[in-house]
Design a protein that fits this description.
It is built from five helices and seven strands, in the order E-H-H-E-E-E-H-E-H-E-E-H. With 170 residues, the chain is an alpha+beta fold. The protein has a seven-stranded mixed beta sheet, with helices on both faces. The longest helix has 13 residues. The protein is globular and about 40 Å long. It starts with a strand and ends with a helix.
């Protein structure tokens, strides 16, 4: 498995990533194209194409913040799911980032949400905040009640949430 940091929105993989991003994540859970493009010039953000057997099988959008990495989006493309590739991606994250925070929808909302929550639990994440609110991605988009997960026990959850709000969702 290869993890390729994409540095330009002109990279040929970006359109495939954006198409999957729009198909998988509801409007309120994602940036529009113009806002996503600005991430490529942000030094705190890495958009990573995940390759397996020379195929683009998914992506990560991560933020390298002061004391932790925030995984904003993590997707294995639909045709590659249920093949243990997501676990390989979490292994990559754990090997490269000792402190990881991510958001997911509440585990009781749907079968998909339950499956995602079970996946993250199985792969070393624990629930650290059930009252987390993801700010709106912009005009016409709603804030969302989500859960915050981590692969460690953060000491100051409010400071972590403030940093996510100030930097990721500013």
């Amino acid at each position: 498995m290869e993890f390729l940091h994409i540095t330009s929105p002109d990279d040929y993989r970006v359109q495939e990533i954006f198409n999957a991003y729009c198909k998988t994540f509801p409007e309120d859970e994602r940036r529009d194209w113009d806002k996503l493009k600005t991430l490529f010039s942000n030094p705190k953000v890495k958009i990573i194409s995940v390759l397996h057997e020379s195929k683009n099988i998914g992506y990560l959008i991560i933020w390298e913040l002061s004391q932790f990495v925030f995984v904003e989006h993590f997707e294995v493309f639909e045709e590659f799911r249920s093949k243990k590739l997501g676990s390989n991606i979490t292994n990559y994250l754990f090997e490269n980032y000792p402190r990881i925070i991510l958001e997911i929808e509440h585990g009781h909302l749907s079968d998909d949400a339950k499956r995602r929550y079970a996946f993250y639990q199985k792969n070393g994440f624990t629930l650290i905040d059930e009252m987390y609110v993801q700010p709106s991605y912009g005009e016409g988009k709603r804030p969302l009640d989500l859960w915050l997960l981590a692969n460690y026990s953060p000491e100051n959850l409010n400071a972590i949430k403030d940093e996510i709000y100030d930097i990721v969702y500013h």
